[in-house]
Structure prediction request, 2022 residues.
Amino acid sequence: MNMLASIPGAMDAVISGTTLAQASAPAPMAASQLAHYLFVSAALFAIGLIGFLTRRNLIIMFLCTELMFQAAGVALIAFSRFHLNMTGQTFVIFILTVAAAEAAMALALVVLLFRRRESLNAEEFSEMKG
Amino acid sequence: MMLAVLILIPLAAAVMVAVAPASRARSIAMVGMLGVAVMAGYLLFSFDWEHTAAQQFALDEESSRLVPSLGVSLSMSVDSISMMLVALTALLGPICVAASKTAITERLKTYYAWMLVLQSAMLGVFCARDMIFFYTCFEFTLIPMYIMISLWGSTNRKKAAAKFFLYTFTGSVIALAGIVYVAWSYADRHGMWTFDADTLMRWSRSLPAATQGWVLGALLLGFAVKVPLFPFHTWLPLAHTEAPTAGSVILAGVLLKLGTYGLVRFAMPFAPAAFVGHAPFIAAVCVVGILYGGLICWVQTDVKKLVAYSSVAHLGFCVLGLASCNVMGVTGSILYMINHGLSTGALFLLIGMVYERYHTRSMKELGGLAAKMPVWSTFMVFFAMASVGLPGLNGFVSEFMCLFGAFQASDQWGAGMWGTAAGQTPGATPGHLGAWVAAIAGTGMVVAAMYLLYMVGKVVWGPLVEPAGHSSHGADAHGHGSHEHGGLPRDLTGREIGVLVPLAALCIVLGVYPSPVIKALKDPVALTTDEVVNFGKARMAMPLVPPANVVPAGHQEGDPHGAGEPAPAHAVESKETAR
Amino acid sequence: MGFMMTLSTILATLASPIAALAQSEPVHAAQQEAGHAAAKMEAIAAPGVGPLWLLLIPVLPLVGFVLSALCAAFKVKSKLPAWLTVLCLGASFAVTLAMYLQISSGQIANPSVATGFEWIRVSWGLGDAHSIVANFGLYIDSLTCLWMLFVTGLATLIGLYASEYMAGDVGAGYCRFFAAFNLFVFSMSCLVMGDNLLLLYLGWEGVGLCSYLLIGYFYKKPSAVEAGKKAFIVNRIGDLGLALGLMLTAVHFGSIEYSVIFAKAQPYLTALSEGRLGDIPAVVQLIPVLLMIGAFGKSAQLPLYVWLPDAMEGPTPVSALIHAATMVTAGVYLIARTYPLFLLSETALPIVAWTGALTALLAATIGMAQFDIKRIMAYSTVSQLGYMFAGLGVLTSGGAAFHVFTHAFFKAMLFLSCGAVMHGFAGQLDLRKLSGVGSMPGWRVVGIAMLVGCLNLAGFPVITSGYWSKDMILGEAFANPHMVAIGWILLLTAGLTAYYTFRVYFRVFVGPKYFEPGDEVHGHGGGDHGSHGADAHGADAHGHKAHDEHGHEGHGHDAHAHFHPHAPGWAINTVLAILAIAAFAVIGLRFVGGHEGWVSGLIEHSSANYAGHAMYAAAASHAGAGGDEHAHATFFGYDAHTAMMYVSGVVGFIGIAVAFVLHFVGRTTAAKSRADALLPLVGPLAKWAQGKWYVDELYNAIIRVPLLVLAHLFHLIDKAIVDGIVDLFGWVPKFTGSSLRPSQSGVLHGYALSMAGGLAVLVLIVVMVMK
Amino acid sequence: MMDRLAYLWPEIALFIAACVVMVVGISPSAATRRLAAVFAGLGVVAAGILAWTTTPSGNAVTASSGQVLLPSLALYAKVGIAIVALLLLLLKPGTVDRAEEAAIELGVQKFDALRTNRAEFFSFFLFSIMGLMLVAGADDLIWLFLALELTSLPTYIMVAISGGAGREPAARAQEASVKYFFLGALGAAVFLYGFAMLYGATGSTNLNAIHASLTTGGVSGLALAGLIMSVLGICFKIAAVPMHFYTPDVYQGASPSVAGFLAFVPKTAGFLSLLLLASMVGWTWAPGENGLTVSGGGASLPEPLRILFWVIAALTMTIGNVLALQQKSVRRILAYSSIAHSGYMLVGLIAGPGDGSFTRNGVAAVLFYLFCYGVMNVGTFAVLSGLERKTRDGQMSEIDSIEDIRGLCATHPRLGWPMALCSLSLLGFPPLLGFWAKLPLFTSAISAGEIILVIVLGLNSAIAAFYYLRLFGAVLLEKPEASAGEVSASPFVSRRVAAMVSAALVVALVVVVGQLTDASRKAAAPKVEPAASATIPASMNH
Prediction:
């Protein structure tokens, strides 16, 4: 993915540039370490996307979107550590709450659908077209 | 203020028609139309005929402001050109209502309400001095016509109505783009938006020729669809054959004139350099339109389609007059708008009368009606002659002036083989048309004779041919019983004659004694041609003496070098045009 | 009847004022004769202001038209419109006569202008220099008097004739006929008396309209409607030429009024007379060529003559007045009126002469081979008009005018006689089905009138006016060294004319008595072509049954026994008598007044004047023959004029003799004559001549059919391509819409996939742009 | 802290109203249950008034208290949202459990607090509107993310439960909700990841801070990637091209009143967030010669972003219009027309703020268009929801195909004429509101030099003319199909009122177009430090 390729380059610019919230206490994280974390989050994101596209079961598809949410969380934590400020982590907390809300909603929807259609295969739901 | 009243009367009548019971719809509509006619008459009476070029009856600035940030205002005013066309619209209104008494039997309220709305929209177009107000009325004429065609048309009316609406709508969107571009370039320079016609004219005149070319292209495209000029005319025959009689009369009588009025009032002053530059191209399109339209008429079997194509040919002459950019040509084309409205409107009325009796328009099923309908035949021959341009009737005066305008407008008269030793040809005016254009367009007169006499020969003269259901048994001596349902006697009723007589009288009067109309048009036409030929130097030079009944409209606020309203006509003497 | 007497006395007293005029005349002519080299053309005098009562001349026929139209509106069932017409036209003739008397006595200045009201005035600049003015005014000079005299005179007579001739249609179409008749005279007077070319154009198209209405009078017959349409359209083609000429005059001279044109043409004329031809710009030389096209259209000359023979579909009075005497001479009048312009152009007059001569020859050859006597008379009119144009071409405008004058009378008489025959024999016009009519009871007057007419037309020496007028033209043709070829053509045509004229006379009016009734469509008591739907005519007093459509051919033969021809009434006979007397009286005019007679006297005082010998040298010189001096060609050594006196008489006599031998001697039946024996000798020529040299078919093939094909092609193009493109614009969005529609497959994964794909594509685009 | 609260009074009012409505909804007495809608209305009105009075705008907004990029955006947006929300409320999605309520009245079925979801519908409605107002007031990425999620989650539920009685409509609603939810979640994930990257690139989530770091430090690759990901994610909300696939099925599946809600609320949320993102990354202000000229004139968005917007705008307009041509179902036509209108608004976005005068200011044009679109669209959906037809199995189902609305002006004039007027206004026919909304788009695009886009805009409005004309013609001219089941007006008067009010607004607002345009221009005006720049020249507020 070309985005990944551009990240190390971005890192040098960031480091040389002045980041605002330069925390005093813990030592700044090295760019290479950040890249590892970002690589993991990108992978998670990709897996989630591919899972969403391939799997037919609605619950699995929802789980894939959850995966993509968590990928963003991982990235955020890595950046927070990198920038040494807490904003990223607060963001993750909120992501978790929202993900939980969505999960509740998704399962409620799945229950509603299952009662009607006895099956959770996505192909079932395609009468409307054109 | 009076113009606002003029435009509101039909709207008010339309509302009353919508509210009133269906039975009274027609009478209210007639009252509304007559109200408009009376108001137009009063305007004609109180119009200051000395300063015909001045914008009269203008609304004062404040009350007409609509969208200040966009500079859009409801500014209305009228000079003698618009006054003539307002009079024509006011005249055709009552005639159409009277003519559709027997033709329209169901959904009367919708019909008359929308006809009144159409009338007010048309009047709005002729009185508008603000481009957006003009564009709005220009667009608003589409809805009533669309409804009339799709409700009271004959066989494939849906397709005809949709094509009519979409074709004209696209054309006018392109014209709007042109107008907005000019307004934007003005705002870009002056920092303030305005859509007032005079200001934009003065501004767009100063644009470089290339940009003027684009502006002219957009405006020309928009109005050419409406006129209709040659390549954009295919909607007209379809719309005419499907429209009810009164719809056709208004469509031919006034709606086509919106295009030509737009050309003379907005396209020419907005892009004078480009217009003069492209005049030969426009003339070529017109000449093609004349011959192409004429020849197609000759092979038509449907009478209405024949007269529709003849409108394409006739309006070719009208725009040819404009393309000549000289007083003779432009006066001729404005006269042509009025004359075409009268003669072709009458022809459609006549065709409608036959359609009400025999329910067919195909020339194969009709023939030799002179035997059965002598009065109708007299009127048919009369109006055919008027539209073929027989001298003594109105068609000739305008057709001759357009042709002569084109003949005159050429630089060749001064020099070369055509020139004279003394180099002085008093009758010539600068331009790029000349003898050959007039000669080829002149053959259009012969073609006009061919197709109109073909129609008259087939429908009026010749052995009696009646459609299957209507032929009264053989040449019975007394032909009393008429089989035509719809309760119409064989020949014209008093009402129908009453509708045709005013048109015929006007044809004769305008044919024999057109000089008062020509004199009235002299100044605004001189102004327009001067603006096109030498970019409005005359208007600039005019002293600032506002004529009597013009509310001092004052300068367009924030426009430093505006010369205000053009001043009395006699100051307008465009310079010596002959070299 | 009283009116008739006053008319003949007037004619007789013509001599007195002319005599007064003549005294002053010879001196001037002689002087002109002598000083040929240095003679300066006296300019056309600036017009004086004419009295307004002159406007009565055009207004009276207009009043007649309005009254007849009212009669039509109120469905008048009597002969009232006829009497109204005769009254109005008679009054108009009286006013014309008064005008002539005042002009000749000098009370009104010779060229004078009486303006009624302003018709069209468009000015595009300062003052008059840049404006075109067309008033409803009259330009009066002797040429106008000449023309209006015979127009209104003949119109009155033929109006009287028509009152009886059209009696059959009293209830239906009678008013319409007389309305168009009056409108025609009004248009003709506008044409002749108009003071500007635009009013001439109004009259020009007005007479075209009236001829359309009158030719198409029997509108039930498709052939009549077709003929009317053909006449109007061919005239319109001519009118286009006239319009362009008018515009060119307006552009060059800055005005279209005769007085201004002649004044502005003056410098060119002086240049011409001094032989400085270079000074005349090409534009000015083009004007007459364009005006000529209009003249040829209206006066049925070579290219545009095809409409006149078909115009015989109209009732006979129409053929007599319009298509023989007045309307067709409009072309001659136009050239005479604008003669100074024609003189300016090197090529104009020779073209006119040659066209005239060729038309005369062509028409004569066709006339010889026809069987329908009205068609023969039509072709003879075309031929005689060719003579007049040739006369104008060879610079004898006086001779041409005199021929117009004489031709008007005797051709009207011939047509009316044929009309009387057709009227009497229920529409029979075929000379193979009629014989010995002159000697039948009640047909005496018609026979004599026919004889007089034929003699005049054939140009029987000395005693006929036709001879004198034709002689003037022939004389002048041979006098002019360059026009000798035309002279010979005209001479040959004179012979042919004499032959076909007397072919008709000997086949129809003399010989064994025999007749077959025609198909009654044209004649009196015809079918229900009355437009008012009034009851059909039912049994006519004389037993003609009313037939709706074409009568049955067969009916004629078996009815031989009990059908007897309907002899013409008093109105027809008196008119024929008057015309016969007039034909002879006109000879007098040749010798009275002026060097070459009364008519050329009038011409000399009008704008058509410049036929004086002084001009001779100039015309000769710029006709390219190197004007050494006033070369006066001789005819085999003798002086051209005197020689022509004898030669043309002899040729005429030979023509009559040949006709006598072939068509009278030994002819026992109406159908056959000795001429038929000669047919094989001539071979295909006879068939071709009978087929009118297939000119109609030629025009149809090279003009009408291609135009029809082109029209259908345009219609196809319009429907397919122009409309097609518009529909294409409509179709493209629909097509893309329908092609994109499957993308909405309804399946969730499909959407997700295309969303992801879309994202990828967009990112790709952004990245590419970044590069 | 207290000045932050000043932003939230309208949202607080909505929140309280939502809770009250929920409680009222489960009260045993039917009368109080029916009051739920009234309470919801009161809540929205209160929020509107509070927004009008309390929201700080213009210079009152300080860096700490809110985003200074478009300071007065919140005031205009919140008031506009409140007005359109009121109209949407009038649509009163009462079909949710009408059969159940009827059964309860007849006593056939005992009221069971657990089963009923009528009032919950209104609370979700209010929560979604609250989310929308939060988006308007957002000044932080986290806040923006939460607000967007708060806007869309309730809508998923509304779609799912809006199917109303009857087997077949419910099944269709559920299918719609599936598609909407899952694709929505995908979109959310994408823009969340974008936000993450943005944070990563700039180190802060506060919009002002990000703006400052981007303008000073320049837009790094990571920031650009983050921006693009978030823009593409948000495109789902405004149904722009790559993410538009759900729209037709969802609008057809959900009941028209909910579809009307979907046509306005997520679209406004999307556009407001796009405006914030774009103003965050571009449009730095410099007082110009006659008003404010953006540095680098209008197109100061980074080139790739501008190209992205340009391509999305062109594709959205064209595909939206073109696909609508042959549709038989009115709902699907309106769905595609809403896609097309998103395309038009994107043109305004690209044109950027210009020099601040109304006709040069794309942002003002977008805001004005949003409001006008909201008003026009409610009319059309109100008409659809105002009609219903008895299906075979006796149930009353809502109409779908164009045949059902034939001759509506004759049969139900109070619904026919609003549809006619609104479809003409959506077309942009001159005297109506739609034309005045589209005109600034034309002028701002021309002033920004996007000539090609203007041509595409013109062509599209011509193509759009075709299917709007079909709607107009069907309603006004054609005779009702005799064969189809008898189309009757639904019992809910409020829907007819909504239709008529919206039609009246479409005509009446033309008179006050001047004032409205000024308001939207002020909304799009930048924060100008009084000390630094000269007062805005007189001609500016002309």
Observations:
- Residues 157-190 of chain B form the longest helix (34 residues).
- The first strand of chain B starts at residue 65 and ends at 67.
- Chain B has 20 helices and two strands.
- Residues 2-470+507-548 of chain B form one domain.
